[in-house]
Write a structure and sequence with these properties.
The chain contains twelve helices and 18 strands. It is an alpha+beta fold and 350 residues long. The chain has three domains: 2-142 and 321-346, ATPase, nucleotide binding domain (Nucleotidyltransferase, domain 5); 150-185 and 260-319, Nucleotidyltransferase, domain 5; 187-256, Actin, Chain A, domain 4 (Alpha-Beta Complex), CATH 3.90.640.10. The longest helix is centred in the last third of the chain and has 24 residues, at 250-273.
Length: 350
């Protein structure tokens, strides 16, 4: 009875705490926050200047005493205090859109393979940020739930979640992960690939924000037969130190990010090699689902299909799958409880 009373007067919040973007869902309301996982700090006063999209807009444009901090690096907490402030900001924003009496219950997505210490850090920082109860679910399972895959059935399902800091590859059956791999090659690594490529071939320096925009506009895993897109990019000439602009083509960016994409494909092959034959036949029949921001790279399904010889499907809404998965967990906690880390003193991910 008390549990029903508590649920009536408290928010239930799902959070996809990503390296690049963080999404927040409130049960009964929907997705209420979609912000960049970035914080701007004043190093003189040690106070937060801005968070989220506002802080991201400051990247590359700040004076010396303003530092841009990414509280989540490669899917795990890099700065406990900054992450606590960021989560408190998100929870307060979410709670203000649907005010309740008690502190919220929170489900947070975490990448595969993070250590017990890292899981405890996620739990503790959420409690410090204002949550009453915290549950943790692995992001590929949350993504699979969000996509609508039959994870409770004796059928193998495969998900590749290409995020900002990590790529999580998992094969799921009967409410558990059969085999999986997490690698720190994802969107941020591709941004660095683009920066390095432009520096090496064109001898100009660009910022991370510019590299991300180039990836969004020109990123392609396989070049099509149509006329290549091209854009003008401005940066600093490494020889003269003066501003200079160049023209980049889709082929340039394809060459820049190709190596990282092949490493993700190789990791996927490694997971498939560990997969039991019966489940492998299910995957051959049903295919592989691509989700996460990396799924937006043009023709990425064609590249994966050509190497893996398996049907590749891109999720209809790759950015929201994890947080939607968290929302379904909130809707029916008992159904998904075995997938959660609910005893933080004896941490075990099923």
């Amino acid at each position: 009875m008390f549990e029903r009373f508590y649920q009536k007067y408290s928010n239930e919040i799902g959070i996809d705490l990503g390296t690049t973007n963080t999404l927040v869902y409130i049960k009964g309301v929907g997705i209420v926050v979609n912000e960049s996982t970035v914080v701007a700090l004043n190093t003189k006063t040690n106070r937060v200047v801005a968070m989220g999209n506002e802080a991201k807009n400051m990247m590359g444009r700040t004076p010396g005493h303003i530092k841009i901090v990414r509280p989540i690096v490669d899917g795990v907490i890099s700065d406990f205090e900054v992450t606590e402030e960021f989560l408190a900001y998100l929870i307060n924003r979410a709670s203000n859109s649907n005010k309740k009496v008690f502190r919220p219950r929170v489900v947070i997505g975490a990448p595969i393979g993070i250590t017990n210490v890292e899981i405890r850090a996620v739990h503790d920082v959420a409690i410090s940020a204002g949550a009453k109860e915290v549950y943790i679910i692995e992001t590929p399972i949350a993504a699979a739930i969000g996509v609508g895959l039959p994870i409770h059935e004796s059928v193998g399902s495969m998900v590749i979640d290409i995020g900002g800091g990590t790529t999580d590859i998992a094969i799921i059956s009967l409410s558990g992960i059969v085999c999986s791999k997490s690698l720190k090659i994802a969107g941020d690594k591709m941004n660095q690939d683009i920066i390095s490529y432009i520096r090496s071939w064109f001898k100009i320096l660009i910022g991370e924000k510019t590299a991300e925009q180039i990836k969004i506009e020109l990123g392609s895993a396989v070049l099509g037969e149509e006329v290549e897109k091209e854009i003008v990019v401005k940066g600093r000439d490494l020889a003269s130190g003066l501003p200079r602009e160049i023209i980049l083509t889709e082929g340039d960016i394809n060459e820049a990010i190709h190596s990282s994409l092949l490493q993700i494909i190789d990791a996927t092959k490694g997971v498939l090699e560990m997969t039991p034959p019966e489940i492998l036949s299910d995957i051959m029949k049903n295919g592989i689902i691509l989700t996460g921001g990396g799924a937006f790279i043009r023709n990425i399904d064609k590249l994966f299909n050509s190497h893996l010889k398996v049907k590749i499907s891109i999720s209809p809404d790759p950015l929201t799958n994890v947080v939607l998965g968290c929302s379904y967990v909130l809707e029916d906690m008992e159904k998904y409880r075995e997938l959660l880390v609910d005893n933080i003193d004896n941490i075990k991910i099923v």
